[in-house]
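G., before I forget:
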Amino acid sequence: MKFLVNPSKFNEIADYIFKPVLVLSILFFALGLLFSFYLSPDDYQQGSTVRIMYVHVPSAWLALLTYAIMTFYSIAALAFRMPFGFIFNTAVAPIGAIFTLICIISGSLWGKPMWGTWWVWDARLTSVAILFIIYLIIIFINLSFENRVVREKVVAIFVIVGSVNLPIIKFSVDWWNTLHQPATISKLAKPSIDPSMMTPLIIMTFAFMMIGVAIAILRIKTEIISRKSNLS
Amino acid sequence: MSLRFQRLLLIFLTLVILLSAVLLILYNTRENVSYFYTPSEINKSDMIINKIIRIGGFVENDSFKKISSSSFKFRITDEKASILVTFNGILPDLFREGQGAVIEGTFDNNVFNATNVFAKHDENYMPASIKEGLRDTGYWNKKYK
């Protein structure tokens, strides 16, 4: 597992797995979209609109997962002086931001027909909007320091501080009254979604994950090269 | 204690303190963070005329009345209390008796004048065909239409 902390080991493994990951993501997307549009049933309440879920929920999960991984890398980078964590933060923040944006846009398109509004300031929607702003701030900090050593520390500290938002997003629907529904799939309980609708959801989640990993590999490799040549 | 362990401890302590600070703030402002009141949470001070608030609950069964093509009357309930609501405008597709709804508006002598009506759906997803099957065998929860 050394490739997860060592830049040169990462480069080696990344060259091996990049193409398989890319092919897998295309396969999962093809299969997932087929399931989402044709092989899954309409919902008893929401009809066909429920298919927005197959984009909305995977992107939301991955926006959170990306941030969680960034938090671990930031802690490791600061505590164990592990430069790969800093590289990871710089490379992956825009990917998380895009996942969050997809989640917000698709959720908005889903909210209009079902709730009757594009956007409300309830706890879940607001905390996700804050997540998007946090991602933007991370990207901007990355762009705004001349000195790399200072910049990457500031980013890592900011990522750790921002991670406070993750449990708030997760539990916002349980702690407060929100217009957003509570969690359909949680670890402790049997999911309240039919298997025929769970299947496209899982496939699309893997598809989003694979495309995320593929873009992350490219961006991390680029970041390693630019650091070696002292470009950033 | 090694230096890296000290740094790790410092980071975790910082996180714990930060998280508790934020949670304390949120806990003490929970009334304002919540998007709506349920009918039983409403108290007299919220019923001040012209103060815009939101109430949420289920549309009470057999309470929905159409006054004209765009004017409606219904009751919102949380099974402990219920509030009479009047609304002029377009209702969302999901709106019906037994369905969750969030209503924005003002109180006028115990009647709630709605300016906005949002439909709220729960976390259950089920194919439409299964609903028909359940209804045929009598296992369908009558709370849902």
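Helices of chain B lie at 3-28, 30-33, 128-137. The longest helix of chain B spans residues 3-28.

More on Monday.
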